[in-house]
Specification:
This protein has 184 residues and is of the alpha+beta class. Helices cover 23% and strands 31% of the residues.
């Protein structure tokens, strides 16, 4: 089922999400619906807060980017209760966008690699080192679980330039090719 995506301005995007308990209802179905919603919106990641659920869960799939970023080949994950246990001192700056902030793209500095521990949709624990653009995708979605969005990491000068766009989005004055949840 396609789920509506929450836009900047909805308070759920600024809340620290709660851990997902093992008995969370229909977790596998939620994971499938999140992947379907992400694909339908042409995204490469989607966090549960972006569909209005304040739980520590996100999905990513970098497969479409593998020709440009080989580290994304086969990088399709559902990460539940993830914890970043290590990150590189080396950083890389690249442009990012977000389904909750349509039409805004800005350069963001992030670690070149990370180590992340998480549970999959079957609640099986994994720990892996993630590099390059796959790390960027993971960190972008991870930020959503802590009530942060990528524009929080943009320089004050750049924020000044995009302030009007962000205000319009937070008032629901934006056009999207995918279903969004009205801002109350």
């Amino acid at each position: 089922m396609l789920l509506p995506i929450v836009l900047l301005g909805d308070p759920v995007l600024r809340k620290v999400a709660e851990p997902v308990p093992a008995d969370y209802p229909d977790l596998k179905k939620l994971s499938e619906d999140m992947f379907l919603t992400m694909y339908s919106a042409n995204g490469v990641g989607l966090a549960a807060p972006q569909i209005g659920r304040s739980i520590r869960m996100f999905v990513v799939d970098g497969s479409e980017l593998a020709s440009e970023y080989p580290e994304c080949k086969g990088f399709k994950r559902c990460m539940i209760n993830p914890v970043i246990t290590e990150e590189s001192e080396e950083t890389v700056t690249k442009e990012e966008g977000c389904l909750s902030i349509p039409g805004v793209y800005e350069s963001v500095k992030r670690p070149a690699w990370i180590v992340v521990k998480y549970l999959d949709a079957d609640f099986v624990e994994h720990e892996e080192r993630v590099e390059g653009y796959a790390a960027r995708m993971t960190l972008h979605e991870y930020d959503h679980l802590d009530g942060k969005v990528f524009v929080d990491k943009v320089s004050p000068l750049r924020k000044t330039f995009i302030k009007t766009k962000l205000q319009k989005i937070s008032k629901g004055k934006v056009s999207c090719s995918y279903r969004t949840k009205p801002i109350k």
